[in-house]
Amino acid sequence: MEKKRISRAVIDRLPRYYRYLGDLLEKDVVRISSKELSEKMKVTASQIRQDLNNFGGFGQQGYGYNVEYLHSEIGKILGLDKSYNLIIVGAGNLGQALANYADFERRGFFIKCIFDINPKMVGLKIRGIEVRHIDEMEEYVKMNQIDIAVLTLPKAGAPQVASNLVRWGIKGIWNFAPTDLHLPEHVIVENVHLEESLMKLSYKLSEIQESDD
User: Fold this and answer.
1) Cβ-based burial of 63 (10 A; exposed 0-12, middle 13-18, buried ≥19)
2) Which CATH number, 3.30.420.40, 3.40.50.150, 1.10.10.10, 3.55.40.20, labels domain 8-77?
3) What's the predicted TM-score (pTM) here?
4) What does the alpha-carbon distance between residue 76 and residue 64 come to, in Å, rounded to a whole number?
5) Using one digit for the tens of pLDDT, what is the confidence trace for 74-103?
6) Most buried among 88, 99, 135, 159, by the most CB within 10 A?
């Protein structure tokens, strides 16, 4: 049986559902209707139902959604019932900030090592995570079960480093480098272009300012 293709837009909304449901759990909310959830998330109730129906629905007529169950099921869909080992390539300010973000472990993402080319960084520990020279990265990746590489290095070096990582067996790359990576189709790349996000904010601010003039 062919697996149903889910649109990227639906997938992009799942982490947001997961976050809002997690907030409801912390407030001891047991159940919620699609209408109540829509009011909190500013997404239409119809959209919520359509999104969740892609995965089986999860709701009950006249009851709504069990918050704990729905939170758990969306977590499974997102793969959060598994754990992943990560390395960070680039121990600059952004790499250090990510290494210091302890909540990754709560979601099952474990940063095992950091790599950098700067000899002044090598040997340091960031939240207990060792910084090694990038020359040691090939052996480390091949000898350890690493699922995801996080790239926080300059634009010029990112494509070659990414290509090397794929050859060494990495299947997932979280790319913060300001460049597009052209890698084999079996490699999953999630790009986080911070400057582009800031430019979008700038555009929206400009629109507001122009409308106020």
Assistant:
1) exposed
2) 1.10.10.10
3) 0.84
4) 20
5) 999 999 889 999 999 999 999 999 999 988
6) 88
